[in-house]
Specification:
There is one protein chain. The protein is elongated. The chain has 2 domains: 335 residues, 3-Layer(aba) Sandwich (Rossmann fold), CATH 3.40.50; 86 residues, Immunoglobulin-like (Sandwich). The N terminus is likely disordered. The protein is an alpha/beta fold and 446 residues long. It is built from 12 helices and 17 strands. Helix 2 packs across helix 12 and helix 4 runs parallel beside helix 6.
Length: 446
């Protein structure tokens, strides 16, 4: 399977710190545990707590850093002391157990397994009497929080990088969210920040050079990357936790959940050695920023435009692949603690694959019923001419058909494909034919 075999993963060193607090779970009559950082013990009950944030560490499993990020974010968001429960669970590997000589009740996972909800391990060196998915451990943590805090209103489950991979899949697969709402009136939201890959809900992937056009990859690509749609990248070959429900329920659950995606504006290095470079992950985009923006298109393509009401994407200005930079930013801190909006950051993945024979001209700024002139070199080949917003999303398709070589014209009335007049601001006009593209920015005035 791609998730287990072809993912490019660098094995992290043992963790430098293991928290003293333990969260216990009962598995087939055996009591096992994981470490966690916190401001308040999960064993207690706190009438003053109205919100909880559970932040999953990255690939280095540094729960201490995740906890510090939450403390700083709470301060940035102006959270009143004592009203929020902050928890950073630690999902260890066997290297951590050995390095810290941890007790035989402490659970551990494989380096890749904890990121996708696999079962904990039982080895000859470190035997354990039972195994459990770390997603199931998270279920127990959330239920414990909701059941013991009588005035709790909301829980946020968040993660950065590898932790965001965890949260993206967990948001699709868990059924504890429904229990928290029905039994305690507690809502759950999710924050997914800068993951290397995402869980896709069908076999389509973005066509090269687009963020909004999706199709099943051609046979040659599927042959060279046969497991591109296996879990954790797709819905085939699901693990035990994820296969507890049908694939249709996974789709329905994820579509209905409230997820905010935080994307670092500078997390755009296609050669980042810490990024998943497996063939299946590369089909999701050239770098993390691209993968996030393309995933936005995937959700809209799969679930319809209304999914944007529940799944929103925010770009954090001036931040790359940094958990502290993401979560302690004004936007990131606000999202962790319930904010519903962030400053708009302009970013575009639309770049020219230029041909000198492609030309594009239009009035700028736009006036009503503007005439756009273009010229293409190839006779009878498909031509697309679209208006995009600065995130690369299609606002209006003006041409999408075979065109004769030479000049052409088309009118744009400043309206979207739905017929609505577009908001004032900057847009991108993009002409494509035969793998070449020409783009130009234009301003739409009030």
């Amino acid at each position: 399977m791609c998730a287990a075999v072809c993912a490019a993963v660098s094995v992290a060193s043992p963790v430098s710190q293991v928290p003293s607090s333990r969260f216990s779970v009962s598995v087939n009559g055996h009591v096992l545990s994981i470490p966690y950082e916190r401001n308040l013990s999960l064993a207690g009950s706190y009438p003053q707590v109205k919100r909880a944030v559970v932040l999953v560490h990255g690939t280095s499993r540094d729960a201490d850093q995740a906890y510090e990020n939450m403390v700083d974010a709470a301060s940035e968001a102006g959270v009143q002391s004592g009203t929020a429960l902050l928890v950073a669970p630690q999902f260890l590997t066997e290297e951590d157990i050995t390095a810290h000589a941890l007790a035989p009740d402490v659970l551990f996972w494989s380096e890749s397994g904890w990121k996708e909800g696999s079962a904990s391990l039982n080895t000859a060196l470190h035997p354990r009497p039972a195994s459990i998915s770390d997603f199931a451990v998270m279920d127990s943590i959330l239920y414990r929080i909701a059941s013991r805090n009588p005035n709790l209103q909301a829980v946020t489950v968040a993660g950065h990088s590898a932790g965001a991979q965890f949260v993206n899949r967990y948001a699709a697969g868990n059924t504890v969210e429904q229990r928290l709402l029905s039994e305690f009136g507690v809502t759950v939201t999710y924050v997914v920040a800068n993951p290397s890959s995402y869980l896709y809900f069908d076999a389509k992937r973005a066509e090269p050079g687009t963020t909004d056009v999706f199709a099943v990859p051609p046979a040659s690509v599927r042959q060279s990357c046969p497991d591109y749609n296996e879990y954790k990248l797709g819905l085939t070959q699901l693990n035990a936790y994820m296969s507890r429900v049908s694939t249709s329920q996974l789709r329905s659950q994820y579509s209905s959940r409230h997820v905010t995606y935080l994307l670092g504006q500078l997390d755009a290095n296609p050669a980042d050695p810490s990024m998943d470079m497996s063939c299946g992950a590369r089909l999701q985009g050239i770098h993390r920023l691209a993968r996030g923006l393309i995933y936005q298109g995937h959700l809209s393509n799969t679930f319809g435009p209304s999914v944007a009401v529940r799944h929103r994407f925010e770009v954090i200005a001036g931040v790359g692949h940094s958990s502290s930079g993401m979560f302690t930013s004004n936007c990131g801190a606000g999202v962790l603690f319930g904010a519903t909006s962030c400053p708009t950051v302009a970013v575009s993945l639309l770049t020219d694959r230029a041909s000198p024979e492609l030309s594009l001209s239009l009035p700028n700024p736009l006036v009503p019923q503007a005439q756009i002139r273009f010229e293409v070199p190839h006779d009878g080949d498909r031509v697309t001419l679209r208006i995009h917003d600065l995130l690369g999303r299609v606002v209006r398709t003006l041409v999408d058909s075979a065109q004769p070589a030479g000049p052409g014209t088309v009118m744009w009335d400043g309206r979207s494909d739905r017929g609505d007049r577009v908001a004032p601001g900057m847009y991108i006009c993009r002409l494509e034919q035969g793998g070449a593209a020409r783009t130009t920015k234009l301003a739409v005035l009030p």
